[in-house]
Amino acid sequence: MNSAMCPPYQPYQKAPSFTFKLPLRLVEAVFGCGNFDDCGDWLQDWMAEYLAEHPPSRSGYRLMLDCDFETVHPNPWFHTLNYTAQLPDERLARLLEQALRGKGLLD
User: Fold this and answer.
1) Which residues contact 41 (CB under 8 A, 6 or more apart)?
2) What share of the chain is helix, strand, coil (3-state, %, to 5)?
3) From CA 96, how far away is CA 43, in angstroms rounded?
4) Distance from C-alpha of 18 to C-alpha of 31, rounded to nearest angstrom
5) What's the sign of the alpha-carbon dihedral 36, 42, 44, 46?
6) Superkingdom of the source (predicted)?
7) Those residues with Cβ within 8 angstroms of residue 75's Cβ, 6 or more apart along the chain or in another chain
């Protein structure tokens, strides 16, 4: 194979991680009782749409999104659905935070 025809190799670059703690009470107020998977679907769709319209300035990273629940506090008011996203830069993290606030998922 002619190497002149192949694009230059882009090594995997681990993107910085950002964690968003969404109060369960707000997630349920927006998506309905127990519909936490709908929240995750919305979040993934938002990121995919945004990144399609505004490609990051650097390549060679993988967009990762992890989810877990934090429910150890005895008062359910403080229980959260935590999303950790590996994003290309802090600018995208701030935009995602604004989108979460606009959707009513952050105080």
Assistant:
1) none
2) 40, 20, 40
3) 9
4) 23
5) negative
6) Bacteria
7) none
